[in-house]
Amino acid sequence: MQFRRWSGTDAGCFATYGLKPSFIGGGTAGYNWEFGKLVTGIEGEYGYLHLKGNGQLPFIGGTPCGSAANPCDVFFSTQAGNWFATITGRLGVTADTLNLQWLGGAHTLFYGKLGAAVSRVAVSEFSPGSAVTTAVPFSFSGAKNVWGLAAGGGVEWAFNQSWSLKAEYEYLGLRKTVAACGSLPPSAAGAGGPWCTQGGIGGVQSLKAGINYRFNSWPMAAQ
Description:
Elements: E1 2-6, E2 13-16, E3 24-35, E4 38-56, E5 59-60, E6 63-64, E7 75-94, E8 108-127, E9 138-158, E10 163-173, E11 176-183, E12 194-201, E13 204-213
Antiparallel strand pairs: 1-2, 1-12, 3-4, 4-7, 5-6, 7-8, 8-9, 9-10, 10-13, 11-12
């Protein structure tokens, strides 16, 4: 992941870092229609996701930093999540349709899903303050809700007419950038105009397991 800081006179400096893995959890609600051995439906999901990372700007005023005389004391931070939501369509076939009776026959559904995802992404730039950059600490940040693609697939097994277990892979294609702008203190290197931080987040991959309750019995489970 790369983050860029720029102003009207700065060509741009980059810091590269990644977001750490996160626990994901939440709930789903939806409706299914069955057409023979095919099942189609719509599903909404809302849950918790927290991805966070930070890095140092390797340049100060265009000069490489990292020495005792010129420490790297400007930092970037990015956070994605605290919540996420998806709305997807779902299409699946039963195991017996694929001649996989040993996997549960009509009780087991293999499915794919496709739709939209949204989550909150925030970026920031900050410095604790030093004689090199500025004696005054500074920070500024920005955030927005980011929309992208939701796609995945999984398997669901109905162990009775009302309850089923599922395992699922889902990709959240939140490939967007977020900008944060602010003013550096007058004593800062490169001060004299607005400075901005632009961060880009790539796709989020998730593996989930869950249990579903059906208000109407799943016809396949009764076969």
